[in-house]
Design a protein that fits this description.
40% of the residues lie in helices and 16% in strands. The protein has 716 residues and is an alpha/beta fold. The chain has four domains: 166 residues, Rossmann fold, CATH 3.40.50.2000; 181 residues, Rossmann fold; 141 residues, Glycogen Phosphorylase B (Rossmann fold), CATH 3.40.50.2000; 181 residues, Glycogen Phosphorylase B (Rossmann fold), CATH 3.40.50. Strand 21, helix 22 and strand 22 form a beta-alpha-beta unit. The radius of gyration is 36 Å and the shape is elongated. The model has no long low-confidence stretch (mean pLDDT 92).
Amino acid sequence: MNVLQIVPSLRLGGVETGTLDMARALITKGHRALVISSGGPLVSSLEAMGAIHYVLPVDRKNPWTILAMARRVSEVVESHEVDVIHARSRVPAIIGVLAWAAVARRASFRANDRQRLPCFITTAHGMYRPHPFSRVMGWGRLVIAISERIARHMIDRMGVPPERLRLIPRGVELQKFPWNEPRLSADKGEWRICTIGRLTPLKGHKDLLRAFGIVAKTFPRSRLLIVGEASPGDAGYVKELQNLIERLGLKEQVEFTGREPDVPRLLSKADLAVLASTGEEGFGRVLIEAAAAGVPVVATRVGGVGEVVIDKKTGLLVPPGDPMALASSMMNLLKDRSFALELSRQGRRRVEALFPVERMTDQTLEAYREASERLRILVVKLSAIGDVALVTPSLRALRGRFPKAHLTVLVGRSARELLHRCPYLDELIVFDPARDRSPLRIWRLAGKLRSLQLDLVVDFQNSRISHWIGFLAGAPQRYGYGGRRWSWLLTHRMEGLFARTPPVEQQFRLLQLLGIQGATASLELWPGPADEARVDEILRDAWLAEHQPLVVIHPGAQWLSKRWPVQRYADLIDRLAAAAKVRVVLTGSASERPIGEEIAIRSKAKPILAMGLTSLNELNALARRAQAFVSGDTAGLHIAAAAGVPLVALFGSTDPLRHLPPAPQVKLLKAELPCSPCYRRVCPRPGNGHMECMRRITVEEVLEAVLSHLKLPVPS
């Protein structure tokens, strides 16, 4: 993998140390490590280990600078073929997500065998307020939380789905922090106390100074080392601390050391480490470093600190903002050194068990692999039932092209059953047209899709709603058909949707934009054992003879212009029974049952009336039992095509070149008229011309087609 980490700077701090730890682990395991920051003292260490570093002002909040940096970072991502963009702070996250979107949008799947796009992940180090500037920390494909407290905050306050969170605590290089047994006594009370961290009000230095003032009355020769630097905006805070030291009379006992490049050496000489934070600490890396080195710790109970230090077992915890409690705990560990020794031993054991750097880096590398290896694809096909059956070859082709991808289909409620057992899918999301068409419901649905962190949307629906759903889902690449009013919402368009092209071939033309060539057009559906058992029950109750030929007729259709006359179906049933003792099953929905009942009344050879008795998958299972299937241009015809049964297709108001499903054996019957195809739901022609396109298809033609499938002669 090629991994890019973006951090504001490379100065002293847990974020920066973690960045170096990950760069070292990546290089050690044969990956490539890149880092972008505004610079700092740790750059030399980073480059010495073999990482690539770019100095860019990714710490500035100016909007124009952010946009300029996003463009520069996208160039770095493309030039180094970066797989993972890992942002460790808010401004870097905004820059990173903009760069990711730009690179992902430009990437081509057509020209090569590309299997994935760069991915964007974040690490949440703090308790961010839930405002727009901070919410970007929850936009990663995976969001790494450094403590359970932060993980809960990201779920509850930032709306991050739990399945996208990974809890990975910080780690420490144990060999760099060898355990030293704490001193049991100090000559003349010359205890060495340290606090390590940025000089910022959230670190509670004022409380620590007041607490140390109390300690110094008992141990006047003790010293307090304040290790760390102030950010440019906190220079006034350092002056406040110096003034407080003057007032407390601690000038000779308190030392500001600045940035300490050798923290292990400093801790090896310390008798006590204190973290007096008043703000919500995400973790407290210095606490595990001190524990690893054998230094007893006192810390305030804030944020994730309680997950690092177990009170009275591996250290002492006190309430934040309470100098008296802080001083009491410090005095306790300076006076009772046997207690301090026991805490030190337990602290080291806990760090060895839970916080070795190898555990952190291994878990983070696994997160990188998880986030980057699986392309996330959404296929949109909201309606209709027959069209959903027609999309199955495309699903098979997508799975073949992207075998490791996470493939999700957004499907209409009426057709969801068809894809319930589809082996090419990882997830099925249902769209209910009766409920989900409002702007609010579409926005909520898009939010659910955004949580999937989609890379591609393949829109086979080609409607205003489907285009908006894909756009609002936030996928950088959105494929669909051009030529419609809202097709500008797509990033990749296939023109010529309304050309006279078979339906599956029309989809395959779109898939060519994804580098898919030579896909097979055969339909598939996946009825289960319960569906087969239901068909057995229907045929058994109808007393179907064991070897009697079975033909399924699907006479209904939503468009009246697609229906063959009822009397002709009745005549066909009687002719089939007379010619070859064929048993006929009438299928369709419950709303179409009156059509079947009328056909049954008019026919002498009574058919099996199964209308309203079968689900979609049961209809497919039933079609598999038949020797032929007769239907107009309906969903039933597509479901039967997926069963592989020989078809007799009756077309009138629609164009079979655009709508006839692919099938191994099909007899197409269509009368050629100047007005056909008209694509009118109801035939507008009056008198003798009414429904002429369907009436011109004779019973003899259909009978001949069915018997041809049965390999029987037509009776004279």
